[in-house]
Amino acid sequence: xxxxxxxxxxxxxAVLGAVRASRIxxxxxxxxxxxxSIGSFGLGTGLGQSLRFxxxxxxxxxxxxxxxxxxxxxxxxxxxxFTVFDYEESLFFTSTITPRAFIAATMLSDLTVFSIFLIPLxxxxxxxxxxxxxxxxxxxxxxxxxTLLLASMVFIKQSLSILISIRKEPMLRFTLVFIIALxxxxxxxxxxxCFPLRYxxxxxxxxxxxxxxxxxxxxxxxxxxxxxxxxxYLAFSTTLLIICSGRDVFRYARPIPFYSAxxxxxxxxxxxxxxxxxxxxxxxxKFTLDLKPSxxxxxxxxxxxxxxxxxxxxxxxxxxxxxxxxxxxASEKSPSAWILILAVYSLLxxxxxxxxxxxxxxxxxxxxxxxxxxxxxxFSSLLYAFIAVSxxxxxxxxxxxxxxxxxxxxxxxxxxxxxxxxGSSANLFVMIHFLERRRRATSGVxxxxxxxxxxxxxxxxxxxxxxxxxxxxxSFFTDLLFGALILLYSYVIxxxxxxxxxxxxxxxxx
Amino acid sequence: MTPILEVYDLWKSYGEIQALxxxxxxxxxxxxxxxxxxxxxxxxxxxxxxxxxxxxxRGKIIVDGxxxxxxxxxxxxxxxxxxxxxxxxxxxxxxxxxxxSGRIRNVPNELIRERMxxxxxxxxxxxxxxxxxxxxxxxMRQKAAIAAALIHDPELLILDEPLVGIDPVGQHRIKEIxxxxxxxxxxxxxxxxxLDTAERMCSRVAVIHWGxxxxxxxxSTLRGIAREGADxxxxxxxxxxxxxxxxxxxxxxxxxxxx
Lengths: 510, 259
What we know:
Largest sheet of chain B: 6 strands, mixed
Helix content of chain A: over 70%
Order of helices and strands of chain B: EEEHEEEHHHEHEHEEHHH
Shape of chain A: globular
Strand order of the largest sheet of chain B: 6-7-8-3-9-10
Radius of gyration of chain B: 19 Å
Strand order of the largest sheet of chain A: 1-2
Oligomer: heterodimer
Number of helices of chain A: 19
Structural class of chain B: alpha/beta
């Protein structure tokens, strides 16, 4: 027990350390709790009210489907195998701590951490029971059943992770996929009422649990068969965990190089970037840097484009615009949906490109800073590469949408170009600003948010232009005039920021 | 002949920590000069200021007669630098990285090709030419960084712990390259913890402690300063000099003032 407690405390401290490392993390958690708590009241009240109008068959079907879905997620998560954080491997696995003690501490710490995120869920349950004016014993029984259900899913996930790590046979994975399919199959009855399989008629653990929950809510004794089925499932998940945790799992563990799930340090980002490079570089090897004669600025632009291909940046930008394309095609009659998404993406893409540059390149800047290359040439080339990507892909998407939906694409095209110029230069400016000596410790998330904010403010005239064009349905020539003015404005901002970037780059310290 | 590097009264602080306290040193052309000192003495800070990765609070640095604050780009044509912890663009192949290093230093393409082939052969990295840097071992990256620092044939090669992580054959090759460069009249300036290597390789060394140079010269000069015998090793001299210079320890002074 002492071992479990010691490991538990270290793990909790590691999580708290990662959370406290960034104020943004704390802020996001507070925001989540605040927002989710408000939502919980609405959800709890709504669920309570709707239950009055729902029949028992629907309740069992829907609740069972929900529980089955969570169980399927738990099984899917176990496919990653038994994973541990880097420090855990070196700290605990070389000590006298037993696998069972380690696993128990891991589950306890996971439950502690997740209980923060489950506060809104329990709040929903409380509001729900209050709305239905249930007696205290009933509410407590509901809470106990929900907790047991949750614990069983954690047990299943942990046990299967261990099994997956120990037993490499594909048969196990196939079996689990088959179980996931079985769990989800009856959900087809929600789409097609004639589908023969329904949760209500199947002996699934989720069905037993749903029946128990329904009877608790109705303040009746659950049928023996449901109770027995539910407890058999709980006993099975617990026994499975006891058996699996008895194995020498340390030798099968797969370390992940983070300190906790909240670890958003530069080190973690760099590791993720390396993974991304190993995944995308094969595709990017078709384009190479060679010794063909070309001006240095062209060479540098090519190098940056190669980086964006090989680190996956280009793939993600394209992927995001494929979504715009799908939404645009779905909302054929009204172009406002895709123009709205375009407006958001146009801010997001330069931020994403700059953040990726920061993660991948900041530690390599010494090669550049110790060279005689004028930094203005480098940063203007970098900006041109950003602009090329964040203009070309949106422009192609807009052109396709314009042709297929017969929409007026003049202003969206100008918006894409303007956002690309302003967004790229504003993001890079903020990034370089925070590379100066006294500001280097600033969290990357804050830097990204500030970049996003500055781009948004500077882009306001472009947004106003496109808004006016949509509202007043201006003519093609008016759009062209507006667009040209927006482009001119964007160019002036771009030149101004480029000058500032070069000036600031001289103060970079690494 | 003017020295290749002159550093005068260099000061640098990180917040309340005073890393350099009026450091002065002079590196002559055609020598292998070593900067040795304990951890936290200010070696890396000194090197980073010289190559332009850190700014100085006060002082003057002249490279080949050029004041680096007045011409922040020009003097970098003369230097090649290899840092202690090496980060290279993981997404480039080794060949691409060397091409990139040559192009940003304005080396003609033909010379890039020639020198790249030469150093890849010397460092036995020819078969890794088209491998991503991501896949290279630490020692290979170190060799790649040294090759990149040499691609423009600099007058002054500055290296921070150049031999750490490199296999014995690689270390031997690097030492050979250093010797060849010195024969050509070029200069090598290294910072190291490896005193035996420094003793064998460097014509002169400077001992840095608590952010200032406590002694500088060839081994016999250092023995004289440390009042050690003619058979004293650099390690013995170093230990004596650093022990004597404890009077400069700001923490010790603070503690004494506190007690």
